[in-house]
From TrEMBL:
It comes from the Bacteria. The lineage of its organism: Bacteria, Pseudomonadati, Pseudomonadota, Alphaproteobacteria, Hyphomicrobiales. InterPro entries: AbrB_dup, AbrB_fam. GO terms for biological process: regulation of gene expression. Keywords: Membrane, Transmembrane, Transmembrane helix. It comes from Bradyrhizobium erythrophlei. One of its GO terms (cellular component) is membrane. This is Ammonia monooxygenase. Signal peptide: none annotated.
Length: 372
């Protein structure tokens, strides 16, 4: 959904190949600086910030669709790698708690979206889709399919992804979680080529099935479902070399950053303070749910925060992969929530829109005066 904006300024006159070189260099510098600061998701946030700067400077690039699909498939495999038998055992023991936390977070996001729309800050179901915590790409696709303004949905979703990732960095520093990033693992670490070949097959077949079935975020969910099944059965081991992960993080960061077009920023600027307040309120609500999990299950705060965070499954997977957390617990809640949203998201948006339309019609009805 990235669009090429009018070219202006010094960067806008650069050839596409030169723009890509500038983007890659800026991403390496920013990502490297954030990595040196030991911030989670540094290799996602660096490219994201670089892409935003390029876009607003009037020198955007277009991420090839096939490359973006491949990156999403890799993230699906990354999530599948964490889906061990332990994740099923954990869900079976705490399924009622998991479902309750998910329903509370979805209800909170829908209520906040309803309030934003009710006060006419952002119109109709767009506010609800912008607040639903299911991953920016998934919500944008579903919002556009159901008639919402996907540009404003993109702004709200992308802004929340950045804020959640930044908050995760603060939480990680507060609770002294060491980094486990691909860079720390070594760019040239040994690769099991047999397992890597199997992983490529899972990514290609799963991504193709997800696209063929036309499921929102199917290119991520397809490899996730197939890979998780094979991993749980013990038939394969997901192998993802550091360079593959770094490239995937960069592609997702670029795609997200390039979504911040001037048009979206100009349209959303009026509602920026309210959007920030709404996102902070949702993050605080999810933070309260995370603290409840810490008390109820005695898990570490960062694991609980990432599991309940409203930033989306792909962002949570990337951040969790760079920190010492219980990856299976994080992914159990995140994946279950996105499945729930795929099922009830359209119904929630339609219901909220319906209640708002009813109130609007009632408010707009002229008051009839008694006959003289």
């Amino acid at each position: 959904m990235n669009s090429i904006q009018p070219q202006d300024g010094a960067l806008g006159r650069l050839e596409p190949a030169t723009r890509w070189a500038v983007l890659v260099l800026a991403s390496l510098v920013l990502g490297g600086l954030l990595e040196q600061m030991r911030l989670p998701a540094a290799l996602l946030l660096g490219p994201l910030v670089a892409a935003v700067l390029m876009q607003t400077a009037g020198a955007p690039v277009r991420v090839p669709r096939i490359a973006m699909l491949a990156a999403q498939a890799v993230i699906g495999c990354l999530v599948a790698r964490a889906m061990t038998p332990a994740i099923l055992a954990g869900f079976s023991h705490h399924w009622l708690l998991f479902v309750s936390v998910i329903l509370l977070s979805v209800s909170a996001s829908a209520l906040i979206g309803w309030a934003i729309s009710f006060f006419r800050i952002i119109p109709g179901s767009t506010a609800v889709w912008g607040m639903l915590p299911g991953g920016a790409t998934v919500m944008m696709v579903m919002a556009e399919a159901h008639g919402a303004d996907f540009r404003l949905v993109a702004f709200m979703q992308y802004l929340r992804v950045v804020m959640v990732a930044a908050a995760a960095s603060v939480v990680a520093v507060m609770f002294v979680h060491g980094g486990g990033s691909p860079v720390a693992a070594g760019l040239l670490s040994p690769v099991d080529w047999k397992d890597f070949a199997a992983t490529v097959v899972v990514a290609v077949v799963g991504g193709w099935l997800g696209l063929a079935m036309r499921i929102p975020a199917g290119v991520l969910l397809g490899p996730l479902a197939i890979g998780a099944t094979l991993v749980i059965q013990g038939w394969i081991r997901i192998e993802l070399p550091p360079l593959v992960l770094i490239a995937s993080y960069a592609l997702i960061g670029w795609s997200t950053g390039l979504g911040f077009t001037r048009e979206i920023l100009a349209t959303a600027m009026r509602a920026l303070p309210q959007c920030l307040g709404a996102i902070l309120l949702l993050m605080a609500t999810c933070g309260a749910l995370a603290w409840f999990l810490v008390i109820a299950l005695h898990i570490d705060p960062l694991t609980a925060y990432l599991a309940t965070s409203p930033g989306g499954v792909d962002a949570a997977a990337i951040i969790a992969a760079g920190t010492k957390v219980d990856m299976s617990f994080v992914m159990a809640l995140q994946v279950l929530r996105i499945v729930v949203l795929l099922v009830i998201g359209p119904r929630v948006a339609r219901w909220v829109t319906g209640t708002l339309d009813t109130k609007q019609r009632t408010a707009d009805e002229p008051t009839s005066s008694p006959p003289q």
